[in-house]
Amino acid sequence: ISKGFRAARERLTGKGELSEDVVDAALKDVRLSLLEADVEFRTVKKFLRDVKQRALGEEVQLVAKGKDKKKVRVRPEDHFVQICHEALVDLMGPVDTSLARANKGITGIMMVGLQGSGKTTTTGKLARKLQREGHSVMLVAADVYRPAAIHQLQVLGERLGVPVFAAPGANPVDICRDATEEASIKGVDFVIYDTAGRLTVDDALMAELENIQSSVHPANIFLVIDAMIGQDAVQTAKAFDERLDLTGVILTKLDGDARGGAALSIKATTGKPIKFLGMGEGLDKLDEFRPEGLAGRILGMGDLVGLMNDFQEVVDEEKAAADAEKMLGGGFGMDDFLQQIKTIQSMGSMRDLMDKMPLGSLFGGDIPDEVLEQAADDNELVKIEAMINSMTKKERADPELFLDESARSSVPAHAKLTRRKKRPRKPKAPDQLGPEDFIESRVQRVARGCGH
Ligand code: GDP
Ligand code: MG
């Protein structure tokens, strides 16, 4: 949770209601938090006005809580968080992650943006997505200024098994037109034009892109923006939006430190919907835009509110309430955990999530570092899942049994997965196996089909 936002929350804790003074003070902290997250200041102002209006205008809701479903007053600080979250989601919405389709013939997707923003990478990601949906795709190398750029696209095309249209030395406008013609002859569904970028917006580039646009009339023109450029994103988006008929924005490199406030500013200044988020270099790292996830990230509070909303969407409300009760009551078992891992895998960073969930009791105190580290790498979730899958029913209900079996297992005795609080771990000698080796061996066993 970011400093500014936490301060705002703390300021409201213990206050009976959201009075104007209290809200104003809290909003000062939120303002700081948003500016830190790269939200442009005019957008921040608009947001704060919106939140204030809602905070002062709304009656604090009563919600059902506890076993007897007694109506309980939401605490003002929670209500405030909810309001901020909703206001952010509203600012970034409405959600529209659809691809426009041409009325007839091939559908064009033109990728534009500054050099290094991720156009070529995202071209590959979109091609993969479309391919998985059963469409035929052709890529067009319209960035002719750097030979490496053409090669990069050809490598992607080869990996995906997608044809790449290239004509080194030719004019990009001609290339796009010829490629479109060839695609129509071949009966391809989608053509993605990977255009050139510059380090900064310049007139020659814009003129070239305009010419491509009016030559091939792509149904989609996506501006690709690197989230790491922060506040500069607004100027960049404005410049492209003025010259081209952008249909959407793709924000990349959100797997890094960027909090993603740029998305909010881009939506607010251009009115163009955010379509996708780039979450890594891999071709599968393309998420459809969900404002809830990004709102939590901008507020620096993970996606707890969104998470709860998502739970309600994917699970039913009663199940969500039951889970919450179980978690708080300590009766939350490995099976529940596994169920939730599966449900949540696509909902954001697992590490964020683990921090939010009271999972310590599962592991006899704190969550072992090994588990946290693995959770930080979402690919490692597969391992955690396999580990839990390898547990017997009994072990799942009582993970201590699993820990004890690790002590008796065929893995050398020093490879025990110890309970941290009760038996402090001794420093590992360099030649010893660690608990991760035990988990690995269990995973291997399951993989060999001799699990439970
Ligand atoms: P282009 O010049 O706009 O075509 O940009 P590229 O597609 O060549 O990407 C520039 C660099 O950013 C490459 O090293 C990519 O691997 C990297 N990149 C692109 N998208 C992402 C992303 O979502 N996350 C991360 N971490 N890197 C990305
Ligand atoms: Mg490129």
Automatic annotation (TrEMBL):
One of its GO terms (molecular function) is GTPase activity. Transmembrane segments: none annotated. Belongs to the GTP-binding SRP family. SRP54 subfamily. Residues 403-435 are annotated as: Disordered. The chain holds residues 22 to 473 of 603 of the full protein. The gene is ffh. Its EC number is 3.6.5.4. Residues 416-427 have a biased composition (Basic residues). GO terms for cellular component: signal recognition particle. Keywords: GTP-binding, Hydrolase, Nucleotide-binding, Ribonucleoprotein, RNA-binding, Signal recognition particle. It comes from the Bacteria. One of its GO terms (biological process) is SRP-dependent cotranslational protein targeting to membrane. This is signal-recognition-particle GTPase. The keyword Cell membrane does not apply. Residues 273-286 form the SRP54-type proteins GTP-binding domain. The keyword Hydrolase applies. It catalyses: GTP + H2O = GDP + phosphate + H(+).
